[in-house]
Amino acid sequence: MIDPEIYPGFSGPGSLSNELLFRGAKGNPDRDNLSIEKDESEKEQQKGLLCRVCQLLITTSRERIEKDGKHLHTFFNPAGIVYEIGCFRRAPGCLEFGSPSSEFAWFGGYSWQVVYCLSCQQHLGWKFSGEDRFFGLVVNKLSEG
Ligand SMILES: [Zn+2]
């Protein structure tokens, strides 16, 4: 039996902000904070993405990848909570926890593990393992440094 706390999207009560719901409803991911540095992108591809709570460097903009044709994905967990996540090749600031599970997987063929901030232990997203490995990080838990 799996602990419901570690289903994709479960990070405990009250973890979803209205701001995220509102952004998701607008349906325009290009306007969110993962892609604001358009004018800087030519000269500097790499930008740090920090834990919003403790400012630890989690990953960088250079690690962004696309899965199923897009970087940003919006998912519902079994409790109906919506999460907007970005896909990253690596996230050195994350610590994965628990054994991989394929139950209620968001990406077909991938199992997942919950990942936490190495420093403050807040839940940041999931690590997905299948034909390759990548991280799905909740975008409103990161800030650009
Ligand atoms: Zn942190």
Q: What is this entry, summarized?
A:
The protein is mainly β and 145 residues long. It is 6% helix and 35% strand. The strands form two sheets. The chain has a six-stranded antiparallel sheet.
Describe the overall structure.
It is a single chain. With 145 residues, the chain is mainly beta. A hairpin with a 3-residue loop joins β7 (123-129) and β8. Mean pLDDT is 79; it is low at 1-5 and 9-37. It has one helix and nine strands. It has one domain: Metal Binding Protein, Guanine Nucleotide Exchange Factor, Chain A, CATH 2.170.150.20. The structure holds zinc ion. Zinc ion (ZN) binds next to loops.
Q: Which structural category do the helix and sheet elements fall into?
A: mainly beta
CATH class: Mainly Beta
Given as residue ranges, the uncertain stretches (5+ residues, pLDDT < 50) are: 1-5, 9-37
The global form is globular
What's the number of structural domains?
Answer: 1
Radius of gyration using CA atoms only: 14 Å
CATH architecture assignment: Beta Complex
Order of helices and strands: HEEEEEEEEE
